[in-house]
Amino acid sequence: MAAETLAATAGIEVYRDGKCIIKRIVYWMDLKRNYKKLMQEAGDLRATKDAICTEISRFRLTEDMRVWIARTGMIEEEVIELETKYEKKQRWRLDCLANLSRDMTEKCNQVRNHREEGKLQKMTLAMELPEPVRKIHTLKLQENSSLHKVVRHVLGFLDDEKTRRIAICGMVGTAKTTIMENLNNHEKVAKMFDMIIWVSVTKEWSERKLQDAILQRLKLDVQGLTSIEEAALIISEELKEKKYLIVLDEVWDMVDLNKIMGINDNQKDSKVLLASRYDGVCYDMEVDEIVDVQPLSLNDAWKMFKEKVGHPISHPLIEPIARHVVEECHGLPLLIDRVARTFRKKDKNVSRWEDGLKRLQRWDSVKIEGMDEVLERLEICYEDLKDGEQKECFLYAALYPEESEIYVDYLIECWRAEGFINHANNFKQARDRGHTVLNELIKILSQSANSKILVKPHEELEDFPRKEEWELANRISLMDNGVSTLPKSVDCHDLLTLLLQRNKYLTSIPELFFMSMCHLQVLDLHGTKISALPFSLSNLISLKALYLNSCPDLIEITASVEALKHLEVLDIRKTKINLLKFGSLIWLKCLRISVCNLETGYHIETQVSRFDTLEELSIDVDSSKEGWDEIVKMVVKEVVMLKKLTSLRFCFPEVDHLDLFVKHSPLWEKDSCLTFQFSVGCHDSAFAQILESIDNPTHNILKLVNGQGVDPVIIKVLMETNAFGLIGHKGVSSLSAFGIEKMNKMFNCLIDRCHEIKTIVDGHKTSEAVLKWLENLYIKDVPKLESIWEGPVCAGSLAQLASITLCKCLELKKIFSHGMIQQLLQLKHLRVEECYQIEEIIMESENAQLVPEALPKLKTLILLDLPRLTRIWANDSLEWPSLQGIEISMCDMLKILPFNQVNATNLQSIKGQQSWWGDLVWEDDATKQRLQSLCILD
Predict the structure, then answer these.
(1) Which of 115, 259, 644, 931 has CA 20 to 30 A from 31's CA?
(2) Where are the alpha helices (DSSP H) in 267-349?
(3) Cβ–Cβ under 8 Å, residues 540 and 519
(4) Above 70 in pLDDT, residue 359?
């Protein structure tokens, strides 16, 4: 029995060993196949890992996925170890090879399972990727409302390849955020971009907070990172292959997107859209286009309020009250929305509506909210100013009345006199620095506990303020009042600035009035009726700026002016004071006089040249006064001797006198820093104002009045001229006669009453681009003008021209000659008035091949009193992408407008007469209905 049991046990063992041997033989036989399967699976695993690392940012990976990637690395090392063993298999026994084949089979299963796990996690991560658009719950805008038109306007810019940064700018409450939210949700915007990133930039924003918001929007995990630069690189990597739109709402200050996101404007087709209350922020952000959002019209405001309140508003007793409520909202959408919510609860209770209106009127929310915002912004501006220089300049402006005009150069002179402007060796440098400081001051109105300022302008004061008001003040402003008398003496030892200008009843100053003002630095008495200056003026030993201009009765100075050792600025224009009374002040830097201040006779030769340290000189001329030209001729010889001038305002009676100055003044040399405002001929201030109103004060201006022909010195001066006025000139048929190819610095041009000019530019006489920087062209009363440009147009000509005004050009038939309109890529404003031969604004015969994108920047078109005008353009083929406003009056033959249902998408208003509108002919009713809503008719 035992033998049988032993035999059975032995049989089982033999069976097991045999089965094991067979399995090993099978493994050995499948070694090569198992190796190939393992390598295949390992390759697939590697591909899955690479795809995950490539397609999914490492900063979006979960902890589980990071563990999976780490485990993948370990498995790959184990596979490599098996691969190495396989390559050395020739030296192995059969049982070792069988074991290797078995290990490969097991590893192959492990690799396959691990790969499937990775694929599953990849799918889960893909589902967690940031959505292309996050819709925002917002107010739906009414079709054709003013806000809806702004949305359409911005859509046009978003679709424009050349426009990279767009700003929506407007005061608080004008629904900028609502507009931005509607754009964020817009289907067209979603189709334009792969991703829209909305970020609200709070008042307390920081680079880190803004960066964190963007990272959160992109679902990027950057735990452990401390560097803004490193996070910016991650954002940049995430977006580099995407076309994206960055939407920044309520931007309070300049945001450096390159630093925060690692992006710049070179990234393909991506754009930035921002909203801000402050246009200065928009300019700092270097936007390409600014869309101003204005308060709603009363009609739009009523529609919005009516929709919000609902059916109670239709009640006949409530509607008139409701209309007054809307008026109190001043067109601010946010205020309308909040007020409507409140009044909706009043249902049809008339008493409650009336009570609500009265409370709203007492509340006066607009004024309160606006003032809070202004004061808040002023505090921010003040605290953000970089240094004491800027803060002093900021506070100084509190001396001026609200909404009054402040002449920039005058303000800067006062700043310099008070010592606010540092590091300026001369007046030109001081003005440049002053303009820089002024550009940084967003608003010029403030009060400060640290600056004792007494300000009482426009208060109809008849007497000087009480003693306790002025004795501690260091700056006093009583301008534009009715002060007629001043106290006999005042105790103002700390007074630095005293502004008494334009007190028209002030006729005298007590003799002791200035006795205590030894620290006074700025004194302004201009526009008063004083006839003399008291002897106590000599006590103003610290005075730096004295303004006496426009005091027509002022003739006497009883004081000794030699004591005014620090006086730099003196203005005595339109007074009867002789300049010789101030002859001892040879240290003056800035002098403004009139010809009437100059003594006639032998003294003329030394009156001006004695002030040899002058940096700025202005001599006003009244050409109606007999003998003015003879005096000025002698003064020219004096001016030539002044070697330190940086600014000269002067009227030369004849071209020969200008030639004398140019030839003999050391200032007229190459690379000279002289800024000039020259008139040649009979001076007429009206023409000067037209020219200067479109010009920068620092520009060089030349006005040529009632001249004849072309003198070489005019061509020479025009080479340095920025604004040119040609008025009543004879003997030339075009501006080209003055060497137009050398007018490379001209920005503005006025041509008036030149009865022999036939064209502005004669293209036959030039072979290069001309007037490349001209921005404004104003042509008036040129009866023989036939065209602006005659002949071929060189590419680059008129490339910056933004505004054209044509008035009383009686023979003018063509405005845009062949090839000209293609150069006007920057033209924004066109006004044509009283040009009786004009039949077409854009002549088809001159512009047969005009492309639909012509005049891409044109915003306003004004056509007045053009009795023969029949059409603006031959058809409706032009896109008019930027056109916003049209005004048409007394153009009775104009029956067709060049618009259809899809062009001029940003058009906001059409002004004209009801009778003219009624006579228009339309291709279809849809276009008429679309444009009807934009009409403002009388």
Answers:
(1) 115
(2) 279-284, 298-309, 318-328, 333-344
(3) no
(4) no
Question: If we measure between CA atoms, which residue out of 30, 19, 37, 17 comes closest to residue 97?
Answer: 30
First vs last C-alpha separation in the chain = 131
d(CA 197, CA 132): 8
Cα 644 off chain centre by: 36
CB 877 within 8 A of CB 902: no
Query: What residues does 272 pair with on adjacent strands?
Result: 165, 246
Three-class SS of residue 618? strand
* pLDDT of 779 over the 90 cut: yes
Q: How far apart are CA 784 and CA 729, in angstroms?
A: 13
Residue-wise pLDDT tens digits, 509-522: 999 999 999 999 99
Residue 248, beta-bridge partner list: 199, 274
CB 803 within 8 A of CB 860: no
894-927 confidence digits (pLDDT tens): 999 999 989 999 999 999 999 999 999 998 888 9
CA–CA gap between residue 777 and residue 725 (Å, rounded): 10
H or E element in which residue 2 lies = helix 2-29
Other C-beta atoms closer than 10 Å to the C-beta of 764 total: 11
Q: CA-to-CA distance for 895 and 609, rounded, in angstroms?
A: 65
Structure tokens at 697: 């004060």
Residue 593 in contact with residue 573, Cβ under 8 Å? Answer: yes
851 CB-contact burial (10 Å; exposed 0-12 / middle 13-18 / buried 19+): exposed
Q: Are 783 and 810 in contact (CB under 8 A)?
A: yes
Phi, psi of 138 (to 5 degrees): -155, 170
In this structure, the number of other CB atoms found within 10 A of the CB of residue 166 comes to 24
User: Among all chains, which residue has been given the structure tokens 């949700």?
Assistant: 185
**Residues 530, 527: Cα–Cα separation, whole Å:** 9
How far apart CA 742 and CA 710 sit, in angstroms, is: 14
> Could you give the CA distance from residue 913 to residue 888 in angstroms, rounded to a whole number?
8
Task: Count the residues in the chain.
Answer: 938
Q: Say if residue 525 is exposed, middle or buried (CB neighbours under 10 Å; 0-12, 13-18, 19+).
A: buried
pLDDT digit string, tens, across residues 85-141: 777 765 555 566 667 777 778 888 888 888 888 777 766 665 566 788 888 888 777
Say how far apart CA 285 and CA 305 lie, in whole Å. 35
Are the CB atoms for 100 and 86 separated by under 8 Å? yes
- Name the 3-class secondary structure at 803: strand
Query: Three-state SS string across 624-687, please?
Result: CCCCHHHHHHHHHHHHCCCCCCCEEEEEECCHHHHHHHHHHCCCCCCCCCCEEEEEECCCCHHH
Q: What is the model's pTM?
A: 0.61
Distance CA 62, CA 46 (A): 19
Which residues touch 371 (CB under 8 Å, ≥6 apart)?
A: none
Beta bridge partners of 829: 803, 860
Write the burial class of residue 662 (CB in 10 Å: 0-12 exposed, 13-18 middle, 19+ buried): middle
**Residue 856 tokens, joined:** 């891409």
C-alpha 326/C-alpha 335 separation (Å) is 10
d(CA 201, CA 211): 11
Q: Supply the mean pLDDT for the chain.
A: 80
Q: What is the pLDDT of residues 205-223, one digit of tens each?
A: 777 888 788 887 877 766 6
